[in-house]
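Much of the work behind modern protein science is quiet bookkeeping, done one molecule at a time. The fold becomes a row of whole numbers, each drawn from a learned catalogue of backbone shapes. The protein below has been through that process, and both of its lines are reproduced in full.
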Amino acid sequence: MKNLISTLLLFFTISSSVFSQNYTDFFTDKACRVDFQFCGNNKQTSAYLERIKQEPFWGGRRLHLSEDLNLGQYRFLVTDSASNQLIYTTGFSTLYFEWQSTPEAKLVNKSFEQTVQFPYPKKAVKVAVEKRIGYAEWETLLQFGFSPDDKLIIRNPNVSAQVKNILKNNDSSKAIDIAVIAEGYSAKQRAKFYKDAKQLAENLFTHEPFLKHKNQINIYAIAAVSEDSGITMPHKDRWKNTAVGSHYYTFYEPRYLTSPNVYKIRDYAALVPYDAIYILANTPVYGGGGIYNFYALASADSKRAQAEVLVHEFGHSFAGLADEYFRENADVLDGMYNLKEEPWEPNISPLVNFEAKWKKDLPSDIQIPTPVTEESKTKIGVFEGGGYLTKGMYRPCYDCRMRTNEAKTFCPVCEKAVEKVILFLSE
């Protein structure tokens, strides 16, 4: 039977976050990467450890190490073995969790690659991977311990690629480091990739709060070389041999562009310090994907994707924002949310625990739920429809970058959520 975290352990975790620790007491300047597999079906999940790697750069935060933003369908916790002190934690989401809401997951068991990264420890540590079973409740899936001098920890990189600084504004310890990885670019298309990565950066800074915090953002272009130019499209029988093996038609959705090869993606990202990963696909075909603390992926040559989808997908992967759109004829992921539970994403709510969301930001005269009028379209409210559902789920504004491509900006609630993550990681 899987181990449900007890009230006492929850108290310990919360209490531990109150006390800040000195980064250098526990960690080095390198990174520790743990590779494992999520396995199961629509009703059950297991996790199995595969390997541990030491990587050359730690680009993540050095403060708030034991604090938690309560984002992600999963989280992992690192504790010091000797003192049992919580010394690092963070949340994440996965392609596996999305797959669990598809029809296929009812018929077959599958496994998905997953990786987590934290500062490389100086002393022996224990690691736990947990799955969310409520807004603030967790279930333990995997526990293990290791010593940092274990001879079987992998220490050599297994990929190489040219790297160019697109934007270098601050030291990695005080910045958001974004690793942009080339996908579907041949060796002869390296200059095109660098141009596309620069365009990605320019598009990102057309949106707040990224422009406001531009001096806290570094962007690196990693020119991974693909044997073939372009991206795999299974539904059109077009198969390409590319750096990270991305493809359209994820979960049989034509525009959903992802890669199952998480280990390879992290191999390339490890060539630089990073907080976030963006995979730039060399294709004009509209599409993309983004999952919190996992990666974002978008088409480089689709004007709609570069100018609009790019920022939308980064909203998912960087800040854990939910999709606010919905379809009358249902969506491939329409089983993701249980309307009896408050989701962790900051920009949708079934009003189960609305106090934890944007309720405090509402105008005093706003009606809940909020009817759509010309006046209400300009305000923060409680508009029905979001998270792929037409009924029972609510979003904070009539329109937002997380709902449509026509929206020019993030809504105030989403912008605030993005800024919260920027400050958490860089200050």
